[in-house]
C-alpha cells in the first residue's frame, strides 16, 4: 500500500461529512492492519468533536465494499436493538460517518478505500488486562454482542476473509507447507509438527457439529481480543464492541475460544520461556461467567457445553497458523525477530497442552455458570 501524504489525507477529509474547523490530525491506536487517524474538529459554540478515519487494508480485505456492507448492516441492526433496550446507540455501537455522496466509504485518487466512525467518548480500549474485572466486562460485552444480534440472519453476511476459522482447512494448509518445505525448516520443528498432527481431529470437531445442526450459525466477531472492547472510564463497564472488519457468519464458541486464548493466558503471545505459559483458570472462570451472562440465554445447551472445546480449538488453530507461516517463510504474520512465528506457535501449543491437563476443571466451570 502506498504512503499516505498530507495531500491524500486532505482529499479524503474533504469527501466525508465532517463539520467544523480541523484542529488536530494524527495517527491513532495500536492496530497493525488498517491505517487509523484521529481527527479533532472545533464547531463554534459546540466545542470539539472527534472522529476516526481509517484506510482499509486491501491486501488483507480483498472486498472492502462487501466488508462495509457487513458493517453497515450489523451496526444499523445494533442501533435498533440498543434503542429498544433503552441504551445509548451513540456509545454502544460503532456509528459510520457517510461521505458527501452518502456512501459508507470513499475511494481516493490512488484507489484506496477509506471509512470513518464517530469517536466513542469517555471510554478506553486496553491492550492488556490490567484489572480482572475489565476482563469480566469484556466477556459480558462480547456475550451481549451475541445477544443483540441473535435475530440477525447470519447467512446474509459476506465472508470477509474466506475460511478464516475453517480449522480443517488450516490443517490441510499446514500439511502442504510441511510437504513443500520451501524454507528447509521442517527438520528443525519435528516436535511441533508431531504435536499438530497428533491433534488433527480438533480441526474437524466444531465443523462437524455445525454440519449436523448441533451448533447454530451466528453472526460472530471473529477477533475477540480484549482490546476490541471499549471500557467506560466512569463505570468500568464494557460498553462497545469495536473492529468489526471480521464480522461474518460463524460459531459463538469460536468467539469465546479466541478471547480465552488471548486473554486467559498467563504470558504474552510470543513468550519464549514456555514455563510462563498457562491458561489461568480464574480468568477462564471470570470470562465464562461474563460471556454466558451477556448472551442472556441465547446460547443453546450444546453451545454452552462446547465452550471449552471452542477455547481449545481456537488455540490449536492459531498455533497451526503460526507454524504454517513459519514453514512458508513468515509471509502472513509480521515478525520482529528470527523464529518469531515459531515462538508464537509454541506458546499456543503449550496453552493447548495446559488446557488438556485442566480439561475437567474447565468443564466444571462451564457447568457452574450454565
From TrEMBL:
Superkingdom of this protein's organism: Bacteria
Annotated Pfam families: APH (PF01636)
InterPro entries: Aminoglycoside_PTrfase (IPR002575), Kinase-like_dom_sf (IPR011009), Pseudomonas-type_ThrB (IPR050249)
Annotated ranges, domain Aminoglycoside phosphotransferase: 153-270
Protein name stated in the entry: Aminoglycoside phosphotransferase family protein
Amino acid at each position: 500500500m502506498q504512503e499516505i501524504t498530507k495531500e491524500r489525507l486532505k482529499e479524503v477529509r474533504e469527501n466525508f461529512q465532517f463539520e467544523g474547523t480541523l484542529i488536530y490530525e494524527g495517527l491513532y491506536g495500536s492496530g497493525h492492519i488498517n491505517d487509523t487517524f484521529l481527527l479533532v474538529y472545533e464547531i463554534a459554540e459546540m466545542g470539539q468533536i472527534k472522529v476516526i478515519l481509517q484506510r482499509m487494508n486491501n491486501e488483507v480485505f480483498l472486498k472492502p465494499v462487501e466488508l462495509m456492507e457487513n458493517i453497515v448492516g450489523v451496526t444499523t441492526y445494533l442501533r435498533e436493538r440498543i434503542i429498544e433496550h433503552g441504551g445509548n446507540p451513540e456509545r454502544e455501537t460503532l456509528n459510520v460517518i457517510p461521505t458527501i455522496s452518502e456512501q459508507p466509504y470513499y475511494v481516493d485518487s490512488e484507489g484506496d478505500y477509506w471509512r470513518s466512525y464517530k469517536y466513542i467518548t469517555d471510554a478506553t480500549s486496553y491492550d492488556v488486562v490490567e484489572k480482572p474485572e475489565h476482563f469480566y466486562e469484556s466477556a459480558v460485552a462480547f456475550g451481549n454482542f451475541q445477544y443483540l444480534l441473535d435475530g440477525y440472519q447470519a447467512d446474509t453476511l459476506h465472508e470477509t476473509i474466506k475460511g478464516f476459522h475453517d480449522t480443517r482447512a488450516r490443517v490441510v494448509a499446514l500439511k502442504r507447507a510441511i510437504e513443500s518445505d520451501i524454507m528447509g525448516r521442517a527438520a528443525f520443528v519435528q516436535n511441533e509438527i508431531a504435536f499438530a498432527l497428533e491433534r488433527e481431529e480438533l480441526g474437524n470437531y466444531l465443523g462437524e457439529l455445525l454440519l449436523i445442526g448441533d451448533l447454530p450459525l451466528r453472526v460472530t466477531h471473529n477477533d475477540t481480543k480484549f482490546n476490541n472492547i471499549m471500557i467506560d472510564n466512569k463505570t468500568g463497564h464494557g460498553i462497545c464492541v469495536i473492529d468489526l472488519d471480521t464480522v461474518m457468519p460463524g460459531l459463538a464458541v469460536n468467539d469465546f475460544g479466541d478471547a480465552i486464548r488471548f486473554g486467559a493466558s498467563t504470558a504474552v503471545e510470543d513468550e519464549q520461556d514456555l514455563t510462563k505459559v498457562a491458561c489461568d483458570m480464574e480468568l477462564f472462570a471470570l470470562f465464562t461467567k461474563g460471556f454466558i451472562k451477556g448472551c442472556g440465554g441465547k446460547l443453546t445447551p450444546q453451545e454452552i457445553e462446547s465452550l471449552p472445546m471452542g477455547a481449545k480449538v481456537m488455540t490449536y488453530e492459531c498455533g497451526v497458523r503460526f507454524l504454517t507461516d513459519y514453514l512458508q517463510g513468515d509471509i502472513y504474520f509480521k515478525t520482529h525477530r528470527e523464529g518469531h512465528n515459531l515462538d508464537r506457535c509454541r506458546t499456543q501449543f503449550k496453552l493447548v497442552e495446559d488446557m488438556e491437563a485442566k480439561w475437567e476443571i474447565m468443564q466444571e466451570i462451564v457447568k457452574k455458570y450454565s
